[in-house]
Write a structure and sequence with these properties.
By secondary structure, the chain is α+β, with helices and mostly antiparallel strands. It is 37% helix and 26% strand. The protein is elongated and about 60 Å long.
Length: 209
């Protein structure tokens, strides 16, 4: 990120809306915005598939299970239409192939892809594709439930509105697999925030890879 250009752009924006960027209370605003943008957009240019690949281990006999679900993963991103944040929870499911992935790695993949100007629909599809590629999973499903500031704070200002999107691939894009995963996500079977639900044979990969 070109920090100097961001600060200059913020200063110009303040001038454009009729503010005085040299006003005492605004003197540090360009720098603060640059700091926040460095965090919000830290995923630009980062290979999320490599993060996924690095976090996998071979699945041993009896370790694979049929379905692994990590529920209630908090995320934030920035809508590319208005450059306003959207925040919410993700539910990540995969049907293991020959490899397993550290549960914390799934969250890091999501955070990396979310740390770019995004659309919620595309974010889900990209997370699915990245996990499927990095893990060589038999199927991946991602449900995102998010609140968008471009909806809650402007226009009609629907302050209680959230948007839910579903993306899936492989076995979890098939009606039966998709229905099972979504039912388990909503059933309350999983543990609390960040919990994992192995379905089928036991898995032993709770430690982050």
């Amino acid at each position: 990120m070109d920090r100097g250009r961001v600060e200059a752009a913020v200063r110009e924006l303040l001038l454009a809306i009729g503010e005085d960027p040299d006003r005492l209370e605004l003197l540090r605003t360009p720098g603060r915005v640059a700091d926040s943008y460095a965090e919000f957009f830290s995923g630009i240019g980062v290979d999320a598939a490599e993060i996924a690949r690095a976090g996998t281990v071979p699945a041993g006999d009896g370790e694979r299970g049929q379905l692994v679900i990590v529920r209630d993963v908090r995320f934030r991103s920035v809508c590319e239409h208005h450059l306003l944040p959207f925040t919410g929870v993700a539910h990540l499911a995969y049907a293991p192939g020959s490899r397993l992935i550290g549960l914390g790695t799934l969250s890091r993949v999501l955070d990396t892809i979310a740390s770019r100007p995004q659309l919620q629909e595309r974010l889900g599809e990209q997370v699915v594709a990245t996990i499927a590629e990095g893990l060589d999973a038999a199927g991946v499903l991602v449900v995102l439930d998010a609140q968008h500031q471009c909806v809650t704070t402007r226009g009609e200002r629907q302050s209680g509105s959230t948007t839910v999107t579903v993306a899936a691939s492989g076995a979890l894009a098939e009606p039966a697999g998709r229905a099972e995963a979504i039912a388990l996500i909503g059933s309350g079977v999983a543990t609390t925030v960040g919990g994992a639900v192995p379905v089928g044979a036991a898995t032993d990969h709770g430690a982050d890879a």
